[in-house]
Design brief:
heterodimer; A: mainly alpha; MetI-like fold; 2 domains; two-stranded antiparallel ribbon; 14 helices; globular; B: mainly alpha; 78% helix
Chain lengths: 320, 276
């Protein structure tokens, strides 16, 4: 292993004392060995857990993706790049999932950012009511997905039925979860409701960081609040906007939890996201090799977005 | 002066109304959890006729809540303790060691932060099955620790880099052993970031449904509270009279924890997200 002595090892601290032994080698080897054991003691347990739960499973994708296998039986047929060819030529459901995910991404990114930015602008003032308000918007983000999905199942089902009886509005009588077009909006509404608090907090951090003297100077020069907002606040929070947009985009691409817990891809496969398509391929259709190949294609696309995100975040850190 | 005061109050009222509207689904769940099903449909928006806890008690016993809460607590405590012990050790040593091997180890640990969980959950389930740990508590705990580790190490690593090294060097010259230096000098300095990590992982483990679904699946003995509620009530015809009290009870710990730890949660989530 490429182990080398640590920068702050005793030799470097009181190097003069140890110098006599440097030529001899045995003492140094003993020291190196001791340093290595210490490093292993501190770092290897964490590495082992991560290898087990994430890195090794990820690598297993590479192996299984070149086989035709049902995930249970003994027979695995080597198909080379056959699974990948299949994905790109003959897999309508996967591409339907891609279209759904992209459509979801567009609406989710726009809606969640607009709502959370507006909320953040209202809540960024230091007031008692706004600190309570912030907490209210944040609560959906810290309750479990089970609760969220059951809550909305209740609202869209029994709740809307009751509201229809009270108001008589046709809107409440629509089959929200049962119609493909409306089910899409159900997913968007749930995702937005769950996550607004998270983006709001990020926006508030950005708004609070706008220098107060800049705003005061503009006000002395005769700018009204709207002008201050447009010419000072908006340019100053652009970094926060770009980060929130990209975070939202990554979230949208990875959309899975809500689908798995709430719609299960239905009705009529209209809410199957890419990630859920992969899950279904493995556990429902028992096409294990194909599912792992899809996982790799999926990773490739998500990594592109993540790379852009990292670059933007880094550039902001340099500015700050 | 009067005008100003009025303006602020109007804004405060708007804030308040908007916030209440945002939490409407939760409020409706709460008030309806005390009603029989017919009342839910007929008096959906009204307060319940009586605030009796009968349905809560019935749900508590009928769906085995003591067991579920025991399981969920076990998962949360073991996972968080393991993270609190191992993550700062690794992060500290990795930040203080400048070698290629150290960089490789750090890379192995933070790689999962780039790669979406959804891309390896299938193979993870397969690996756990190969080790014969599907449906077991220890399988879930091992997976949970592994999944929480990357962000924890990453956040603490960033923090350690800003902790001055002089204290450690002084202690070393005074003859303190490396382990003592770590536990007596370094670890207390990491308390702020460690609190954030512990709080985030507590919430994540308590609220976890996906990992529990994948690893524990339908094994009633090892389910956590979220998974059990999901398995019981997400079927087509839901038994709302029991489901609503169940949801409320499953949320109470998260809500209490949130109120108590609000600062750490909000600050920590932002830090983790913007960096990751």
């Amino acid at each position: 292993m490429g182990w080398r002595k640590t920068e702050f090892s005793p030799q470097s601290v009181n190097g003069d004392l140890g110098k006599g032994n440097w030529e001899g080698g045995t003492e140094l080897n003993k020291k190196k060995w001791k340093d290595f054991l210490l490093f292993a003691l501190f770092v290897f347990p964490a590495v082992a857990f991560v290898l087990f739960a994430t890195d090794i499973p990820f690598m297993m994708n590479l192996y299984y993706s070149v086989f035709d296998w049902n995930g249970i039986g003994k027979s695995m047929t080597f198909v080379g790049l056959g699974n990948f060819v299949k994905i790109f030529t003959n897999d309508t459901l996967f591409w339907k999932g891609v279209r759904f995910t992209l459509k979801f991404a567009v609406f989710y990114v726009v809606i969640v950012n607009i709502i959370s930015l507006v909320v953040a602008l209202i809540m960024s003032k230091e007031r008692k009511s706004s600190s309570i308000g912030r907490a209210f918007y944040y609560i959906p983000y810290i309750i479990s997905l089970t609760a969220i999905s059951l809550i909305w199942k209740f609202i869209f089902g029994a709740g809307f039925e009751a509201l229809y009886n009270i108001t008589g509005w046709e809107f409440f009588n629509w089959s929200w979860v049962g119609t493909p077009k409306l089910a899409f909006w159900v997913v968007v509404i749930m995702a937005v409701w769950q996550n607004v608090g998270f983006y709001m907090v990020n926006y508030i951090a950005g708004i609070i960081a706008v220098p107060k003297d800049l705003i005061e100077a503009a006000k002395i020069d005769g700018a009204n609040s709207f002008q201050v907002f447009l010419k000072i606040t908006v340019p100053m929070i652009m970094p926060a906007v770009s980060i929130c947009m990209l975070t939202a985009l990554t979230f949208a691409f990875k959309l899975f939890d809500i689908i798995m817990v709430f719609t299960k891809g239905g009705p009529a496969n209209s809410t199957v996201s890419v990630a859920y398509n992969i899950y279904k391929e493995a556990f429902v259709n028992n096409k294990y090799g194909l599912a792992t190949a899809k996982s790799l294609v999926f990773v490739f696309f998500v990594l592109i977005v993540t790379a852009i995100q990292l670059k933007v975040t880094k550039s902001r850190e340099v500015e700050a | 002066m009067m005008k100003q005061l009025k303006k602020i109050n109007v804004l405060a009222v708007i804030v308040f109304v908007c916030s209440i509207f945002w939490l409407m689904p939760l409020i409706l769940i709460f008030i309806n959890s005390f009603k029989p099903y017919n009342d839910m449909l007929q008096h959906f928006l009204a307060l319940p006729k009586s605030w009796s806890l009968d349905m809560y008690v019935e749900t508590w016993t009928k769906f085995g809540f003591p067991m579920l809460i025991k399981n969920t607590l076990l998962y949360t405590i073991v996972t968080v303790l393991a993270i609190a012990l191992l993550a700062p050790m690794a992060a500290y040593k990795l930040a203080r060691t400048k070698s290629k091997f150290s960089i490789v180890c750090f890379g192995i640990i933070i790689m999962p932060m780039m790669v979406p969980f959804q891309s390896y959950m299938i193979t993870l389930t397969r690996l756990v099955a190969n080790l014969d740990m599907i449906g077991t508590r220890r399988g879930l705990i091992l997976v949970n620790i592994g999944l929480c580790m990357p962000l924890a190490v990453y956040m603490i690593h960033g923090f350690v880099k800003n902790v001055p090294i002089e204290l450690e060097e002084c202690a070393r010259i005074d003859g303190a052993s490396p382990l003592r230096i770590y536990f007596n000098i370094v670890l207390p300095l990491l308390k702020p970031i460690l609190t954030t990590v512990v709080v985030l992982d507590t919430l994540a483990t308590w609220n976890d449904i996906i990992t529990n679904q994948l690893i524990v699946g339908g094994n009633a003995k090892a389910m956590n509270i979220q998974n059990a509620l999901y398995m019981q009530f997400s079927a087509q015809t839901a038994d709302w009279e029991h489901a609503l009290p169940g949801i409320v009870m499953s949320m109470i710990p998260s809500l209490v924890f949130f109120v108590a730890m609000q600062k750490h949660i909000v600050g920590g989530v932002t830090a983790g997200a913007v960096k990751g």
